[in-house]
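pasting Acetate--CoA ligase for the record, 676 residues
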Amino acid sequence: MSKKEVVETTEAQIAVHWKEENYYYPSTKFIAQANLNDVEVFDRFSLDNFPDCYTEYAELLTWYKYWDEVLDSSDAPCFKWFKGGLLNASYNCIDRHLKNNKNKTAIHFVPELEEEKIEHITYQELYVKVNEFAALLRDFAGLKRGDRVTIHMPMSAELPITMLACARIGVIHSVVFGGFSASACADRIVDSNSRVLITMDAYYRGGKLLNHKVNADEAVKISADDGQVVDKVLVWQRYPGKISSDTPMVKGRDFFVNDELKKFYGARVEPEKMLSEDPLFLMYTSGTTGKPKGCQHGTGGYLAYVTAMSKYIQDIHPEDVYWCMADIGWITGHSFIVYGPLALCASSVIYEGVPTYPDAGRSWRIAQELDVNIFHTAPTAIRALRKLGPDEPAKYNYHFKHMTTVGEPIEPAVWKWYESAVGKGEAIIVDTWWQTETGGFLCSTVPGLSPMKPGSAGPGVPGIHPIILDDDGNEITEPGIAGNICIQNPWPGMLQTVWGNRQRFVDTYFAQYCKDPNSKDWRDWPYLAGDAATKSEDGYYRILGRIDDVINVSGHRLGTKEIESAAMVVDEVAEAAVVPVSHDIKGKEPDLYIALKTGVEPSEELARKISDAICDQIGKIAKPRKVWLVPDMPKTRSGKIMRRVLGAISNKGDVGNVMTLANPEVVEEIKHMVQK
Ligand code: PRX
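structre below
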């Protein structure tokens, strides 16, 4: 049975016959310095000690007032962590470090174009910038505790400054990935009822200066059509004069932050004392149906969890220089560029652009220049770096002690290159499995305690108790048999709810396995992650991929329904079906099948129009590998499109028995078209 078939099946019990890899062990040098090297941690975090074990994580933070209750399950599954506690995330990431570390670099910002012009922002400078911007948000934009703000910004130092300024005054930020289109941004503005949009004029990507402000204009227009008025657009200006002629500022609505900030020179803003259970931010992610959902993360639970993960799994010490290549517009960037590392007073690197621009050595030059010793990236980037410059890392003088991979399954061969070429055989690797919803890691090895195994994420991290269930809720205990991976217990980093849609939250993550919908006992609410996985004899989990209609492109989640709905906007389209196709670098790519309305002639031009519509509505990341204009969709007799058959055709697999379909003859026609 091929791996692909396993990934795409919806039936739980399928044996996965692939070999388990050999272990790799951390060096004694690494173990000696590791933040976590006492094996008792697993006992301390056993289910018997749940939920009190998690106070160990909360104690990594500075609280104005300690909590009254570790876990409040009275509104399950909307769990409240460290209930009654008071804290501020911006205080924890900045102010508390000033006494001893104000001159230490908090952020190294590396621009794409001028390699030598790296900005080094100290904790004191970060404090000043965050305070001034927080004052602007409060006194100029009129924002107050509990308001939502949409932030559509590229990778820049101003992005974490903006997020931390929001956190300082208790405003809930909703960051939209900079590469997303205006329309995707508008969806998030409307859903979160943001009346302020924060953006940036432009940024460099792959050597080109991209006009970003233009997206804001469009997003505000679309939002207004959908009933959400944005009355202020705050534009950080990095390239004055370079793009302003194309995108005039709208009087009374658009303001350059750089100009307005002058009025707040030297301003200081007392951090709001937030309840632990107050939301810190929203992060939208793709799901099975409809529009992306706003995962709502709380202040105390989330911050405690990501700080602990950064400390114990990423092994960040205050003296480390840490570089996570993810985009801050995704959860990885929120948790592991901004909140986790800064709460630990580390120096966090932010790189503006493409890891291989202008050449395959760029990433390693950055590592050398900044003395990066902890490195964090995704399989898609590792594959690209390996393909373009397998021998490049050896040319540069850097030494990683620790490396992370995240976002999608990593093939053992790629893992081994990462270990030997990028890590130079000196670094330990953690393969961290988790999700936007989970705030921080679910499965990973603890680097100083357990050996690594290429291709396996590892056991649950301390405090996380995974279980593999079949579709009926029975535990699958036999090693190597795939099922739905669930987490038996809630944990502080998990989403609190789906913004404005509790029912969707319950239905998506709990309905399938909830033992009693009225229960206030956390034991009755196992969390369904939506991935298929196997557990091996040593307790390590191997993640196989999504069980729902989500495609993971370069580690980014895209809903097949989102792409299909974008295609349906084109007038000539009658039906659309998206299937994932394997890709060397990206992991997966969407392949789009289209049936046209009667009488419409297929043409290259039309295919291009459909592809462009998708890029416009979602972003280039969703661009289909190919738009196939097919005579008809293969369908069951009840009229359901057989995506499984299309998937097999796209991936040159076996379509199986199609004779029971309503229109079996079309399968051959499509096959001929696609596989020729
Ligand atoms: O399918 C899993 C995959 O990415 C999904 C979560 O995507 P997102 O919410 O965008 O968060 C990405 C960053 C955490 C998961 O459901 N995934 C994530 N990490 C891994 C992974 N698959 C295999 N191995 C991983 N380490």
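The pocket of adenosine-5'-monophosphate-propyl ester is lined by residues 285, 331-332, 406-409, 431-436, 457, 529-531, 543, 545-546, 552, 555-557 (CB under 6 Å).
The longest strand covers residues 573-583.
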